[in-house]
Write the structure tokens for this entry.
Amino acid sequence: MNERSTLSTGVTPRFSEESLRQIEVIFQRYPADRRQSAVMPILHLAQREFGGWLSRESLDYVAELVGMPPIRVYEVATFYTMYNLKPVGRYHIQACTNISCWLCGSDQVMDALKRKLKLAAGQTSEDKRFTLAEVECLGACVNAPMMQINDDYYENLTADKVVEIIDRLP
């Protein structure tokens, strides 16, 4: 199984009533005959509600909701790195190593993260506190190098700054 393969939990998830209301709002953004266009925001909602990652059952559930063949939902979820296809730690740290970040020192930032967390890219700490990921682009090239921890961006990073940021996490 490769890194972007989906995992099964054997449990069929169900959205909460609040999330189902949010899904109806999302569907209203698109023409009635284009409900499939809502797949990305609904996958994002599923990831938030179902533990920070998308199991095979979660992807099947979203496919049913939007009326798409499951393989099409798998194609979307496996293409975009913003969807986690396996469990992640409490702090999901994504360090950008694309060309703009690399030219500004992302290799030193990544090395500092690996040393501080004692993890390689793609690993989760034994206590499930941290997951470290190397990503291609987070869309903040103007302030490279940068990383994302859960929903927050950290820009203009140095090796010392990332250690400070990690030390401040509760």
Summary: Helices lie at 17-27, 39-49, 56-66, 70-79, 99-103, 106-117, 159-168. The chain is about 40% helix and 10% strand. The two ends are 34 Å apart (CA to CA). The first strand starts at residue 91 and ends at 96.
